[in-house]
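Researcher: Go.
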Amino acid sequence: MLPIIEDIGVKHLNICQIEIMSRAQLKKIERALGGIEIYQAFYPVLDDGGLVEDIMREVLEKSYSYSVLDCNGFVKQSRSALGTQSFWSILNRKYPPEWERHRYQRKLN
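Model: Structure:
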């Protein structure tokens, strides 16, 4: 896929994350992907297992002409550092109780 992106002339490849906004969404993702790992940014987020870093490394090694932008949860939070949804603001607030319970009871494969 990366050579195709080079061939069509993309300038920037933005790689975003999957934010898990509800239990129903989490169940659908788990059914499709099996055991997944999540981390907490603002909402729980699907961990890519280092995929973005692997893509960045390959783009550099093969000297592709486009940049790769990692738009994970913490990057998104830092872009709005002064907003109410920023990582720093969130640190001072408690998550909804159902997410706290879910986060601590979750068993990852």
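Model: The two ends are 28 Å apart (CA to CA).
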